[in-house]
Design goal:
Layout lengths: L3 H23 L4 H18 L11 H12 L4 H21 L10
Helix pairs in contact: 1-2, 3-4
Length: 106
Amino acid sequence: MYHPACARGFKEGSLAIRDFCSYKVAIGKERRYSLILRGELDHFAVFAVPRRKTVFDIEKRDIDEYLLLFRNKEDGARVASRKLSMLRGFYGWLLLNKRISRDPLA
């Protein structure tokens, strides 16, 4: 069921993802890398929607379930590891910028 608060939270999460990717370009990452990163983080944000969560209130068990989607496929361990690294960077950046108060990966 659609709820305006969920839509607002999703939009704020999308803005945070955009800001994080812009930050990565500003510190020297290639723009192409930033576009790939944004696509993967957007995929994660969409994963959270059926759980009625945003990137700001996701929990460790949600991240574990997300990573499980990739572990069961060929090259899954490598893909899951890359996704975990991406999420660590994103949530570390959110913490440093005081957009979240706790790291769901801790």
